[in-house]
Amino acid sequence: MAIRTIVWGENIHEHINAVVGGIYPDGMHSTIAAGLNGDAAIEATTATLQESEHGLTEARLEATDVLVWWGHKDHGGVQDAVVERVVRRVHEGMGLIVLHSGHFAKVFKRLMGTPCSLKWREAGERERIWTVNPGHPIAAGVPEQFVLENEEMYGEFFAVPEPLETVFISWFAGGEVFRSGLTWRRGAGNIFYFRPGHETYPTYHNETVMQIIRNAVKWAYHPHPPLKGIHDAPNVPVDKALEPITERGPKLHKAGEEGYR
Amino acid sequence: MAIRTIVWGENIHEHINAVVGGIYPDGMHSTIAAGLNGDAAIEATTATLQESEHGLTEARLEATDVLVWWGHKDHGGVQDAVVERVVRRVHEGMGLIVLHSGHFAKVFKRLMGTPCSLKWREAGERERIWTVNPGHPIAAGVPEQFVLENEEMYGEFFAVPEPLETVFISWFAGGEVFRSGLTWRRGAGNIFYFRPGHETYPTYHNETVMQIIRNAVKWAYHPHPPLKGIHDAPNVPVDKALEPITERGPKLHKAGEEGYR
Amino acid sequence: MAIRTIVWGENIHEHINAVVGGIYPDGMHSTIAAGLNGDAAIEATTATLQESEHGLTEARLEATDVLVWWGHKDHGGVQDAVVERVVRRVHEGMGLIVLHSGHFAKVFKRLMGTPCSLKWREAGERERIWTVNPGHPIAAGVPEQFVLENEEMYGEFFAVPEPLETVFISWFAGGEVFRSGLTWRRGAGNIFYFRPGHETYPTYHNETVMQIIRNAVKWAYHPHPPLKGIHDAPNVPVDKALEPITERGPKLHKAGEEGYR
Amino acid sequence: MAIRTIVWGENIHEHINAVVGGIYPDGMHSTIAAGLNGDAAIEATTATLQESEHGLTEARLEATDVLVWWGHKDHGGVQDAVVERVVRRVHEGMGLIVLHSGHFAKVFKRLMGTPCSLKWREAGERERIWTVNPGHPIAAGVPEQFVLENEEMYGEFFAVPEPLETVFISWFAGGEVFRSGLTWRRGAGNIFYFRPGHETYPTYHNETVMQIIRNAVKWAYHPHPPLKGIHDAPNVPVDKALEPITERGPKLHKAGEEGYR
């Protein structure tokens, strides 16, 4: 079965900015989803901010393996209940790919636990993306470096937790560097942040960019059943202990009582 | 100057449970603080849930290098505004040591971005704590293993992010294991989780336990000025670029405009 | 195409120790290879110490995706030239699964750069293996814990580098713990160490053990072309620089000269 | 007591290249040692390739807390016995700071277990070094970025193991990036690689460079007694087990026998 993937798009600038609308007439999410569907192993659909529950209902998320997230202008417009729902599914094992300005998305900040801040400059300058982890599955088939002739600059310090692995680092014409491809696991869910994708440039029409996102979807996917138990803190009764033990000393809880939260 | 440390205690069971009150007549926080003050490099004071703003005012946190946190029965009683204040200070560089049942403290869950769940059993069973990273500063002077004859069991899976380093792993008589000493950095702040410390046992009267907490305070401390800029996402104007660049292509923002959040 | 896997066996105790020979009449390597071949995605063959070049010729390694290594009694008998050959292929992207007493194999020590020492006891005691990273591909389908009723004890401190991720931790009846499933990448090659497998016990007849090794083979495999360039340190001539630069200042090397090694 | 530090210098180009001799008339090692001795917490001496046992006798290494290594032209001239001696001391807890072309030093390659290869260009181009981990002790007091106007370029892929933490990343005028400040622990020893320092430029006269090396010496130092036991693999006899167990099943070794290596 193909990897059930949702590309979530904020879907605002496509409608209010002529340049963005010109590059992505059907929305950035549609372009990205089409690029993913070019791979038979992936089955990508889309969801947007404007849909009911932002298109991310409980039932739909349950049937989703990987979520790709692009947002920028209205992070605050994403309902907190939907954010928690997404975060829970990541903990249970849904993969999450966060793109570009999604560094400030509520779902990403919630999972990172850090400010996720960075420097930026919108000057259409040259970005060179270097592969610094050529053995990583996300780098499969990616050259040692490639160029995006016009991109927004993101510069360090990028306030995220030290990643499991750093896969890409960007060089910018204006003198900055940025860790552009980073991996984490949170609960059972794999997370990949990928920097490029400013909406006024045709970044998601770039074949190498799309190759990386396809690789990331495959890497983030695990065919595990969801780890539903991750939200619980079960008491293991003394008489169910794996090795025989005798209860000793004082205790707070009665047998079978729930713990505090 | 000594490391300015606050030991925060929930301070409930000491007053409502005779066993806990008997072991820690002045409160667990006082016993822990006294143990830290045995080291001239540390200057520990206390704060409790019951104090105004839980004893963690803006001004006091500004003057704090490391915060030690013990809570259990009333995690929900900690005000969200204080949680955010603590989290911001950790991002700026304040160290944080989370003890035992603090795994479910709001500040810890907020910084980890994961459920922080685990298994547990209150049977006064034997815990053996093994040093699996003897070169780590937190393990300085700690034997290869030591015993707490009566402790609550915590068992895996412990739903926290993969740590920077695993320092201690516990063996329990009932058959479980647990990663008992784990480190992370979030922003500029060092975080250490240390498992032992159930309130019905005299764990914080154990000298090795206190040695580890003292080591952790010293490890978590950095003499950096607070990284106040970590909360900002500054625009770098084109004419201030480090290397001369020319603005090209379309853009969303006017010069000097704030980014979206 | 299936993952081309070699199971390398030292193949000594099977012939000189009746107990080992009874459990593994065709050799441990054959039993392990048969277990791997139960999965259609894997195509496992075997190689042994006694074969010419230990069965690991240049040509055969070139055509190998993942190497599984079991050795114990005669680590010193493995030729250094073959060790270097294996190490080079790992750097280029061949996966490596090191089993049990392979912790002291030359190939493993060479790739880790550490002593790889540990404590041990041969008492047929109970081992409980806990999954501490249930979202990891190597843990797919593995229960939260399982038992090997008779195993050799390995105890911490296990002198290996901090892993990328810790997947399994063992509990032993005699009081020890051990990080039993650890991952690293070296160059482009994925490495997994898995603890169980003392030759006097029927460990590789255990279905969960074999499930883990199958998972590990799949995890370690990448369909990348070998990263042959990893052994080189190429000079990038000034006139081939990606961005135009002018040579300035004094230099040691003439244009096109090789660097020092 | 001050941190007992040796600055090891290859000490060749200073004598055969007029430019290098002009910048470092007393040798690079002397300049670096003088910079370290500007900090009262450090007591730095020097050693060179030309000295007996390269100045790194058993006795001297035993009395050393941190070793700083600079070599380039004659890595092959370092005796293997001295390499092993240094590596053992790192495993036991001696800190190691490897500078610039030391990426190909035998001691570094031996500890990393990888090729340690990279790209390079000697054009005196501009290097900008960015702090990507401002909370790390090695970044204390270091600005968010600083410039070395003339340096040799080192470019990715840098074939080293994923570090514990990435502290600095370099931007080069010619279009490359490089992970310039990386940390690892091997055994009980802390290791820091720091990129700058081509001998034809006055890099070690730069105050920020020296501040970083001073920070690194302090970070690498631990006041632990040496972990001498790390080289052993002790048998734990059944009757000395921490928890009472009964020997069961067949075994290879007689009681008290040494394990295989």
From TrEMBL, chains A, B, C, D:
SUPFAM superfamilies, per database record: Class I glutamine amidotransferase-like (SSF52317)
Phylogenetic lineage: Bacteria, Pseudomonadati, Pseudomonadota, Alphaproteobacteria, Hyphomicrobiales
UniProt cross-references to InterPro entries, sorted A to Z: Class_I_gatase-like, ThuA-like, Trehalose_catabolism_ThuA_prok
Residue span(s) of domain ThuA-like: 24-220
Pfam family, any one: ThuA
Gene3D superfamilies in alphabetical order: 3.40.50.880
Name of the protein in question: Trehalose utilization protein
